[in-house]
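Quick log. Single chain, no ligands specified.
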Amino acid sequence: MPEVSTESLAVPVPGGVLELSWAALTDTGRRREVNQDAMFASYPLFVVADGMGGHVGGEIASASTIERLRAVADSGHVSTKTIEKALARAVKDIASHPEATDDGTGTTVTGVFLDTTGDAPHWVTLNIGDSRVYLVRDGAIVQITTDHSVVQELVAAGRLSPEEAENHPYGNVITRAVGPSEGVTPDYVRLDVIEGDRFVICSDGLTKELTDYGIRHFLDENSDPADAAAAMLEAALENGGRDNITVIVLDVGRPATDAEDGSAADDDSTVDGGSSPAGD
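-> predicted structure:
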């Protein structure tokens, strides 16, 4: 089991300070020889990439994508525009790599970043492929991202039930990826910042082994992000560990406002499922 610890940060936001804490883990699993997952977890960007395409190609694709996104985070200017520019550069990196030029080489990318450019901070999720972002709010778990997969399209069309989809033979076939063949734009969802929210960002190596209920169970049992991530990883390995497993747990603490009563700046718990960009 890889070692993991929880990182914490007090983030200045309009009207006060937001307390964030997070932990990230990745593991090769029990059936793969190489870990083709990659991740980046550092404010304000938390992302997972699950590579595919040959013994080396997937690893190159996911690593290239994460490195380009890391540079965006390091620049301090994370937005939908800078993310899309980074992904375009990653596509060129992958296409030009001598070991990753086949059509099957590519990677998913999914995650969340904090947008503080407006009057109130917002989370923005991004997604390409079938890695996922979950949100636990008020005791309920919701999958925020929508899988770009053949199975999800069949479910959406009413041709498969969610139960049938779990063991479908095309379960690993995705319909959108970051790769050498074409440029792609992520789907975005904007979310209010709410005290007590917990995000899980993961590759499908986790969701192949744990149900949504199982993910929520380990979050409920472990208040510390590192403990929660480690518990989920251990359970996924015990359930088979059929793929590489990557998980980030991100917790949102109470915004400390400038108001005397210390109340949160925004208590609206509505999830906005639109796909509008989060700013320049």
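Confidence is low (pLDDT under 50) at residues 256-280.
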